[in-house]
Every structure is written in C-alpha cells, then in structure tokens.
C-alpha cells in the first residue's frame, strides 16, 4: 500500500451497498484527503452524533431517494469512543453493511496513546516512515522519538547548542507546525536531560508560539545594542528587564537563524524597535527590525511582503490549513496596502488577488465539502467554534465568551490588532483563521456560529438572524447547561462596554456569553470609499475604545475570550444586476439565492462572472449564485465593499483567542 488510506478505500467500492455503517473512533474517514477521495467515488458521509439531527438529514434526503428505488452510496460514521455499531438505530443495522477502522490497525507497532494525539494530516509521513523503516514494537517514549524524528524532522538528541534549539523552534513556530502536548513534553524532557539549556524557559517557548516570539522580541534590542551604543545595556543590568528567563544575547546573526528573522519582522510576528546610532545597509537583513519613518524602509516592507505572498501562493492541491496560514500573510499585505499604499501598490494587490481567487475558487469546488465534518479540535469552520469551546470548559468551572464582529475581514483584523496592542500592552492575541459558510451571508454564517450546526439544520430561519439567541441557548442546553447560565446580545459596538456587560451577565454565575458587534458591518454597508475607507473608519471606531474595553472587562471577569467574524468583505465593481422580479429569495450585492437550480441557471447565463455554487451543507430549495473575483450584482462601474461571494477575503475569517499576559 502506498498510503494508509488505501487500507480503508479498499472496502469502499461504489454500488456495493446503498448504506454502509462505519465505526471510526479515530476520525479517519473525515480526514481531508480521504473524505475527498470518498466523495470522488460517489460516497456521501453523514455523522451520527445527535440522533435528532441525524434523523432529520437521513429521512429528508436519503430515504426519499430510496423510496424512488434509486441507489445511493451513503456512509454513516460513528466517531464516539467506547461505543460500537450496535448502538445505532435498528433500521440502520438492518439495512447497512458494517465496517470498522482504527489507528491501531494501521500502525500496530506504535503506542496508540501517542499516535491518536497526532493531527491526521501527519499520518502520511508516519506511514511512509513505517514502510521504509519498519519498527519493532515500541513503547510510549520510543514512539514519541520516532515521530519527532521522522514526522517533524527533530532529532532531539542532536540539539546540543542554542543555534540548534533556536533553529528548531523557529521552524516549528514560524511554520505554524503544532506539536501535540505529549510530543512537546517529550522534546522538553530530552532537552532538560541534556543539561545544556538550564535557565531557558523550555516549558513555555516549546509549547507556545506567542511566548517564543515574546522571548525573541525582548532580546532583539539587546542584539542591536552590540551594533551601537544607543541602548547601553550591560550584561546582568537591571536597565532592561526580561519577562522570560534565559540568555540575554541570542545568535540572531547566525546564518541558520537570520533567514527567519527578516520574515518575522516583515509579517509583524516581531515588532521593529526604535534605535539610533546604528548605520545599517539598506539591503541588510537587520533593516526590517529597526523602526524608522524613512520612505525607503516603508517601501522595503511593501516589496518583501509582495515577494513573500507571490512565492507562497497555495495550489489547488493544498490542504485547508495551508490556505488559512497563507490568508494571514495575505491579510498583512492587504492591510498595509489599504492603510498606506500607493496606487501602484493597490493595482499590484488587485492583480495578485485576481489570480489568487481563481485558484481559491477551484480549490473550494473540490475541497470545501470535506471541511464540514472535520473534528472541532482545530475549528476548520465556524460551526466548529462553539463545539470546541464546549470541549474546553467541559467538566470544569470555566467560563467562555465569544465575540462575533459581524463582517470583519482578516486584513481589517490586522488593522484592529495594531490598535489593541497600543491600548493594552498586556493583551495577548493568539491568531488563527477559519472558514465561513458559503454564501458568506450573515443569516447563513452567523447563525451557524451560534447554533454550532451547518445551515442544513436551520432551514426555517435561513433568511433571518432573529433565531440566534434561541440557537445559542439550545446549543449550550445540549451541553448540559441551564438557559440561565447562557447570555446573548447583539447590535453592539458603541457606548460603554462595561455597562453593556453589567446589564447582561452576572460575573459569578453566567458561564457562557455570546456577543455580536455589528459596527464593522454597518460601516461596510455605508462605505463609498472602498477598502481604504473601510480601514480608515474601522481605525476611528477602534480608537474610541469600545472593543478594547469589552475584551478587557470579559478578561477581568475571568472568561476565556474568543473573537471571530461571520464573514469578511471585499471591494468590488458592479457588472450589472439581474432583472428577476421576485424569483430570487435573496438579492445581495455579491450573491443571489434561488429556490430551484433551473431559475438560477437561467440568470447565470447572463452573468458569466457568477458561479452556481453547489448547495453544500445548505437546506433544500436554497441555490446560491455567487460572485467571483472583484465583481458584484450592482450597476456597472459602481464601486462597493460587499460580501456574500466566495473570495478568500470573504471566506477565511479571523479566529482569535484573547488573554491577559501574566
């Protein structure tokens, strides 16, 4: 077998059985590439978790097909640990064939407790290593060492000096390669056993990328002090106190280290510092880490960010995580251009964006459906967010707050982040990104957040947001909370945030808070100055302090605070509006929704820029026609900022965990 997937796909031959029941405790069938391959063979996957939700989808879609004597290749997947297929309803057991898969069968010589913590996207590397160098039966530590070496390229015993350690950590954290805690703890154990890193805060900088970048940030001016006398810092001096223990001086100028440092400053994972008295050549890698008002230095960041995104454009074969990582870099560039770029910069951004969204559109057509049923651990889609939060506080006395900033694009978050950092230096922002629902409409995507479900399960309210409060409380009731433990409030963004919270929650009793800040969406729908105007008005709003106060007060009340958006937005130009009377149920600037595919196809013939989006995860009689690129269903030549389409700026949205630095 060339892949671990082959062992599973061998049992999935089309037209063998209309219904297949699979015990899949390790969530193998919903791994991104395997789910895509099964879909390509004609199999539909549906998860059996909530019996009521399952029965609705099963009866409304598949039973009606069977009643017409038509064939399906339906796979019902049971993911729960310590359960077997016999727990499924009798009518399924009577009809379907039964299969079972687990990691123990695929990787018999490794410790199951270690392998099952591994992200499923990494199983390919482990399977290849197992095939090339078949191991004997391994215990926990031997399995951890094997995975660190063959999957992550980390030979722990060969990390013997600070350059080795920094190079390893830079590759992990800059590349957003996340070690599971069990592997990180093994790496720390080996490094501490070596004894050469005593005093280093290994437990923090190995596990936590934010801690690692802070560790580097506070040592950067000490490195610069060696190049000039501006800081006059002496060894062991108390003039410059370090938050994290460890050596004061790091080898930033080592050839294996400095290749990362330049990009870290360009992407603002590290912040340039102000310093005088140092003469640095314009082409030096150090230049990006020194804050100046020099026009040439600003142009240098534009040039390097443009080069970076052009070099790293994902392909149609990329994983969803490749797109979310890239989207964050694209957002850094977009924010810079919209806030301080020239006309030439904007033209170049649009040109790259058109090529980017062409590739992204092709990728969505093939891969988007495989994201829906992924485990909520990594929150690939917005409806995973409350499910992950529920896991975080399960069985604990913890409290959680979710802030949904309606319409906030990822590049606009970059602009907000910079202001929040100035307003509260102790605010820690752990940045991720996730996929919104398509079409990127508030009534579709925001309801999905507060219900924790795909839109398929709320057909009666798909055109409205008035049921969000009910959805939110029903979700948490399903997690064992009382309605009295749950709060929800929308239409926020102005006034005194502390007063809003005082009237909404009891800090000692309310366990879950859902908040909708709709100020950005209001700015967008009145915007006449394009993306640059959006950033300018968002800056002005953020400077008023409502968002910073809201976050700070929630943290003060000891909530775990997350922030996300239901969709982003994009500047676009009108290409004409359909004359369709009342046949469209939704008439947006970037999307039209029709009750039948025939009505949609008729309109699509006249608008070649629009895409007939497959109703993935959507209710019956809901057929979107979404705009592509920078086009919109408005008067030709009119420039607007809108949403509803499938551009990367609309689909991939910020997902931020907010904490106080202790």
Automatic annotation (TrEMBL):
Pfam families for this protein: PglZ (PF08665)
Protein name: BREX-3 system phosphatase PglZ
Organism the protein comes from: Vreelandella vilamensis
Lineage: Bacteria, Pseudomonadati, Pseudomonadota, Gammaproteobacteria, Oceanospirillales
Underlying gene: pglZ
């Amino acid at each position: 077998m060339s892949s671990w997937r082959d062992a599973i796909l061998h049992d999935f031959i089309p037209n063998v059985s209309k219904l297949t029941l699979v015990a899949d405790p390790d969530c193998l069938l919903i791994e991104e590439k395997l789910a895509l391959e099964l879909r390509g063979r004609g199999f539909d996957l549906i998860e059996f978790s909530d019996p009521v939700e399952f029965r609705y989808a099963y009866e409304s879609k598949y039973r009606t097909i069977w009643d017409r004597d038509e064939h399906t290749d339906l796979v019902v997947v049971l993911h729960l640990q310590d359960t077997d297929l016999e727990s499924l309803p009798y009518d399924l057991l009577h009809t379907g064939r039964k299969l079972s898969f687990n990691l123990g069968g695929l990787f018999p010589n490794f410790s199951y407790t270690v392998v099952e913590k591994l992200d499923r996207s990494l199983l390919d590397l482990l399977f290849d290593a197992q095939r090339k160098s078949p191991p004997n039966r391994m215990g926990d530590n031997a399995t951890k060492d094997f995975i660190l070496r063959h999957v992550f390229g980390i030979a722990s015993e060969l990390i013997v000096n600070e350059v080795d350690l920094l190079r390893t950590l830079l590759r992990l954290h800059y590349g957003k390669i996340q070690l599971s805690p069990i592997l990180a703890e093994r790496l720390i154990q080996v490094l501490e056993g070596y004894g050469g890193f005593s005093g280093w805060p290994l437990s923090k900088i190995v596990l936590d990328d934010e801690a690692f970048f802070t560790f580097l940030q506070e040592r950067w001016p000490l490195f610069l002090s060696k190049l000039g006398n501006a800081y006059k810092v002496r060894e062991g001096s108390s003039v410059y106190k370090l938050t994290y223990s460890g050596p004061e001086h790091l080898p930033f100028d080592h050839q294996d280290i400095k290749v990362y440092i330049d990009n870290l400053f360009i992407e603002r994972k590290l912040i340039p510092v102000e310093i005088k008295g140092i003469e640095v050549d314009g082409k030096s890698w150090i230049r990006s880490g020194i804050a100046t008002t020099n026009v040439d230095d600003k142009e240098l960041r534009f040039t390097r960010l443009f080069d970076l995104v052009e070099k790293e454009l994902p392909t149609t074969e990329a994983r969803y995580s490749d797109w979310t990582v890239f989207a964050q870099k694209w957002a850094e560039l977009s924010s810079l251009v919209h806030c301080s770029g020239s006309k030439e910069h904007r033209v170049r951004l649009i040109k790259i964006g058109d090529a980017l969204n062409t590739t992204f559109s092709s990728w969505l057509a093939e891969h988007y459906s495989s994201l829906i049923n992924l485990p909520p651990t990594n929150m690939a889609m917005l409806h995973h967010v409350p499910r992950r939060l529920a896991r975080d506080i399960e069985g604990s006395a913890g409290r959680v707050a979710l802030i949904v900033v309606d319409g906030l694009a990822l590049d606009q978050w970059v602009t907000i982040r910079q202001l929040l950092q100035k307003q509260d230096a102790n605010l820690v922002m752990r940045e991720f990104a996730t996929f919104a629902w398509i079409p990127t409409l508030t009534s579709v995507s925001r309801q999905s957040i507060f219900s924790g479900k795909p839109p398929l399960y709320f057909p009666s309210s798909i055109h409205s947001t008035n049921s969000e409060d009910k959805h939110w409380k029903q979700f948490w009731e399903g997690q064992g909370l009382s309605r009295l433990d749950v709060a929800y409030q929308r239409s926020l963004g102005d006034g005194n945030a502390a007063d809003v919270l005082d009237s909404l929650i009891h800090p000692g009793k309310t366990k879950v808070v859902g908040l909708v800040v709709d100020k950005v969406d209001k700015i967008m729908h009145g915007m006449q100055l394009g993306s640059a105007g959006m950033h300018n008005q968002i800056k002005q709003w953020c400077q008023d302090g409502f968002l910073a106060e809201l976050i700070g007060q929630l943290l003060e009340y000891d909530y775990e605070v997350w922030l996300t958006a239901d969709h982003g937005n994009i500047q676009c130009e009108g290409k004409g509006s359909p004359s369709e009377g009342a046949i469209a149920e939704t008439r947006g600037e970037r999307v039209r929704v029709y009750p039948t595919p025939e009505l949609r196809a008729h309109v699509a013939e006249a608008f070649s820029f629009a895409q007939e989006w497959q109703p993935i995860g959507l209710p019956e009689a809901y057929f979107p026609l979404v705009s592509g690129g920078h086009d919109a269903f408005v008067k030709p030549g009119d420039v607007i900022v809108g949403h509803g389409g499938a551009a990367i700026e609309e689909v991939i949205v910020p997902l931020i965990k907010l904490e106080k630095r202790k």
